[in-house]
What we know:
- The protein is α+β, with helices and mostly antiparallel strands.
- The chain is 20% helix and 39% strand.
- A five-stranded antiparallel beta sheet has the order 4-3-2-1-5, with no helix packed on it.
- A hairpin with a 2-residue loop joins strand 2 (38-51) and strand 3 (54-66).
- The longest helix has 22 residues, at 3-24.
- The mean pLDDT is 85.
Amino acid sequence: MNGDDLEDYEAGQELTLYREYRDVVTLFRYVVETDRRFYLANEVKVTTHAEASDVYFEIEMEDAWVWDIYRTSRFIKRAKVLSFKDINVEELSAGTDLNDLSLPDGPSTPQS
């Protein structure tokens, strides 16, 4: 297997993963981003811990899906993640449909 074959394989895996994400995103309430992973979950609890000069976040998720091409099963019942970096938790709108999402219009250019 050469480098091009490996790149083609990984590109195919990423496309498969994106298609799975597109199919399951409407089943979840929250999007959770950490420095290492991207999750979809129906229950999320974030606890901030401050010890000495360190601050870290404990994220507990239930009924979750994880964006990871190397996992054989991306659906997980319960997960606990610790992060020393920023995290992002967003609540999805009910009935979010990727086909309804659109990019905002770019800046308009003045007419001369």
